[in-house]
Fold:
Amino acid sequence: MSSDESFLQEVVAALHRVGLEALVVGSVAAVLNGAPVMTQDLDLLVRDTPKNREKIAKLSAALQIAAPVEVSELSSSLTLLGGALPIDILFDALPGGLTFEALRSRSSRVQIGDSTATVAELGDVIASKEAAGRPKDLAQLPILRETQRVRGALKGGTSS
Amino acid sequence: MRLWLALSFLLRRLNGFPCRGRLVWKAMDRLAEAERLRGAVLEARQRVAPLVPDIDPGDLLLILQSLLRPIGTGRRFFLRRRDSGGYVF
Structure:
């Protein structure tokens, strides 16, 4: 297991310990769906409730990293800094109107060492990046779409 | 003194052998795993390539390897920025 996979396993185990239901989204979800991309942080989607806010504080303590900080005044997203890599916590929905419930209904469970992560479907990762429209998202789209086509071809014998 | 030297030599040998054995075993294990992945990727490419002729062959190999490689087998996907400004993974 690489240090990246160990980091992911550690975070997922900590999520289970503090009882925080979170979906792995963004580029790490794409990686766990088999896409050959790289990223600089881990994005997690959670429901925005007072209880979950408490659990996020517990999560940073469990990972022995600094307390969550707001990404900006215009956004409710939080970042956990001070660990091996930044962890971004997003609330309720992703760009493109992708709600937590909708994403979870299409998600898959991925085993990482001893822990199981709930991971957004590749199609949803693509849709969220298309809607976000930032240059770094757009740059990843061609290889993500190709990965989705290859997956389709592997499963069903078609490329769509 | 001689007894101490003999004992320390014996301990080094006892500690050293199993360690080397494990390393050799791990390397063989990795090689077998790599061969299994290679076989799976080549078989999948043969099946899938005609269905996606517009995808660059190099990209196709990269995607298939990434799709078929099990999680927890040493994949790296996080970029880290160094103080010097460069990126490493």
